[in-house]
């Protein structure tokens, strides 16, 4: 989360359980210094970024950017925040059911 309470990026991969998700998050923090940014077009008028370790996509932008420069800056912010990112102890919640 950034100071405006919006996420910058998300995992590219889905995980079967909380433990494997947390493990991947710890690994991403450790590898942040070796990650590289790839800017990609998501449409004719929008850009997204991806963070890669080697050839493996690890993190992707959570939204589109209208300008390539905005996507590039967002990726730089993500890379600067990732090594110190705090992993919160959030439990899984059951979906609300309406009766």
Tell me how many strands there are: 4
Low-confidence stretches: none
The Rg value, from CA coordinates, equals 15 Å
Strand content: 25-35%
The major sheet is characterized as: 4 strands, antiparallel
**How does the overall form come out from the CA principal axes?**
globular
Order of helices and strands: EHEEEH
In round numbers, the mean pLDDT is 86
C-alpha end-to-end distance: 34 Å
Structural class: alpha+beta
What is the helix fraction of residues, given as a range?
Answer: 25-40%
Structure in words:
The chain is an alpha+beta fold. It is built from 2 helices and 4 strands. It has helices at 18-31, 68-81; strands spanning 9-11, 36-43, 46-53, 56-61. The protein has a 4-stranded antiparallel β-sheet, with helices on one face. Strand 2 (36-43) and strand 3 form a beta hairpin. The longest helix is centred in the first third of the chain and has 14 residues, at 18-31. The chain is globular and about 45 Å long. It starts with 8 loop residues before the first strand and ends in an 18-residue tail after the last helix.
